[in-house]
Design a protein that fits this description.
It is built from no helices and eleven strands. Strands 2, 4, 5, 6, 9, 10 and 11 form a seven-stranded mixed beta sheet that branches. The N and C termini lie far apart (37 Å). It is mainly beta.
């Protein structure tokens, strides 16, 4: 099983980035997908989530209205569209997959079965 993130980079504040998470070795439609980020010296935090039944989504408060999570099961790929980026969004971004349950919360890293290697997002002028 492999999850591969792509789309990170260095952008100016106010810019947009679209991250992709391509899965292999698993059928993505069976899994809920979480996006996490980790900045230097900080804990990994949940950014966004899309479930595997009806595409219900959740977002970190600071990402609401700016981030959009989606999935294309035919391509076995999930996406995180990030708009109006801020310097505080700078972090390594990870996607993760869980077949469930996630009763302790979608933002709990321990509920995820598989993780990607991460992609760096840097927002700086």
């Amino acid at each position: 099983v492999k999850l591969v993130e792509s789309g990170g980079g260095l952008v100016q504040p106010g810019s947009s980035l679209s991250l992709s998470c391509e899965a292999s070795g698993l059928i993505l439609s069976y899994y809920a997908i979480g996006w996490f980020r980790q900045a230097p010296g900080k804990e990994r935090e949940g950014v966004s989530f899309i479930n595997n039944s009806d595409d219900t989504t959740y977002y970190l408060d600071s990402g609401k209205g700016r981030f959009t999570v989606s999935r294309d099961n035919a391509k076995n790929t999930a996406y995180l569209q990030m708009n109006s980026l801020k310097p505080e969004d700078t972090a390594v971004y990870y996607c993760a997959a869980t077949i469930g349950p996630y009763s302790t919360g979608w933002y709990d890293p321990s509920v995820y079965d598989y993780w990607g290697q991460g992609t760096q997002v840097t927002v700086s002028s």
